[in-house]
């Protein structure tokens, strides 16, 4: 792997990222809660199914680098978005609710996907991870652990984007029906513990009021912090599965998840200046967008079509669990942590 071999693919991912960033900067899609990462994969898929096949031979090395090394670097730098002080600001209520929702959503999605809908394991695990933690970013972070093909990653991202967007519009309606049963603060925790993407959480909260938006976003970021230990646990579980009756796979530790935790710890102390942290977060956004662009470039529409409607059915059922089951769990949490 040389700079010469990397350059065409990295530049291509960079161009797609620049277009996606421009659309986001112009506010296109903001009302729909479409994030820069979503734009990146959509534009990447458009280019990937038109222009990219003609230049794949010279671009493939750089594109693979973008969705591999750049992705892992982006996940590590994501830790600069988080501090442990955020946990303290919302207390055990949000932590416990997040933990219960993460574990229950993941297990329910896995059971439904693999046992009932008979979806392949990789797609099911990615859909379950995206719904239970933080949407597209979680799916991308889980991809190296699950070792899934690009089109399966895209299918999983599609489910979290679609149903996360639906949640963004429906939760403000839920608020008008349910505010007599639940406090404003707890409703924010409800949004943060059940809606898929960070951008969707923020939009749903702001569509009601700023108080709900604040508790929703902090609760969501605690969910994001759970990504690293979750990936370590998932890696351990997959590694412990027998590849045959007598042979066990080697345990693969996703070191980028470990570094994610280390960076979050560093960011919790006044070690790195605010200006440097700001630019590291900006760099992180670019790296994650380039990874999403590269994923889109290598995703074939035909492969997504072959996945059929089952992943969407899974996403719909999980959405009902998140919105209805999640509300009941938040009601219980409100009673327990008064």
TrEMBL record:
Annotated compartments: Cell membrane
First-listed, main subcellular location of the protein, grouped into a coarse class: membrane
Mode of membrane association: Multi-pass membrane protein
Ranges annotated as spanning the membrane: 7-28, 34-52, 64-84, 90-112, 124-142, 154-174, 221-239, 251-272, 279-301, 313-337
CC per GO annotation: plasma membrane
Keyword Membrane: yes
Keywords, in A-Z order: Cell membrane, Membrane, Transmembrane, Transmembrane helix
Family: Belongs to the UPF0324 family.
Name this polypeptide is given: Membrane protein
Organism: Gallibacterium genomosp. 3
């Amino acid at each position: 792997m040389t700079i010469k071999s990397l350059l065409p693919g990295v530049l291509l991912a960079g161009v797609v990222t620049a277009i996606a960033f421009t659309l986001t900067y112009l506010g296109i899609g903001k009302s729909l809660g479409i994030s820069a990462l979503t734009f990146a994969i959509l534009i990447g898929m458009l280019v990937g199914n038109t222009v990219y096949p003609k230049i794949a031979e010279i671009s493939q090395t750089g594109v693979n680098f973008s969705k591999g090394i750049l992705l892992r670097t982006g996940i590590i730098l994501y830790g600069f978005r988080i501090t442990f002080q955020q946990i303290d600001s919302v207390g055990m209520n949000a932590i416990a609710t997040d933990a219960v929702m993460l574990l229950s959503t993941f297990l329910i999605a896995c059971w439904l996907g693999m046992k009932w809908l008979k979806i392949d394991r990789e797609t099911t695990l990615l859909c379950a991870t995206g719904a239970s933690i933080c949407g597209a970013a979680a799916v991308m972070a889980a991809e190296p652990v699950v070792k899934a093909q690009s089109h399966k990653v895209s299918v999983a991202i599609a489910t979290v984007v679609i149903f996360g967007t639906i949640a963004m519009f429906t939760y403000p309606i839920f608020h008008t029906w349910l505010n007599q049963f639940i406090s404003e603060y707890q409703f924010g925790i409800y949004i943060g513990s059940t809606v898929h993407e960070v951008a969707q959480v923020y939009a749903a909260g702001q569509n009601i009021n700023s108080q709900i938006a604040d508790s929703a976003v902090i609760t969501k970021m605690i969910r994001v912090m759970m990504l690293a230990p979750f990936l370590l646990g998932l890696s351990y579980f997959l590694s412990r599965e027998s590849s045959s009756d007598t042979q066990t796979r080697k345990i693969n530790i996703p070191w980028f998840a470990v570094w994610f935790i280390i960076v979050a710890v560093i960011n919790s102390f006044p070690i790195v200046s605010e200006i440097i942290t700001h630019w590291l977060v900006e760099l992180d956004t670019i790296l994650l967008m380039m990874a999403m662009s590269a994923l889109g470039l290598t995703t074939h529409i035909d492969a997504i079509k072959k996945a059929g409607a089952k992943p969407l059915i899974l996403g719909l059922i999980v959405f009902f669990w998140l919105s209805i089951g999640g509300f009941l769990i938040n009601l219980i949490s409100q009673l327990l942590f008064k």
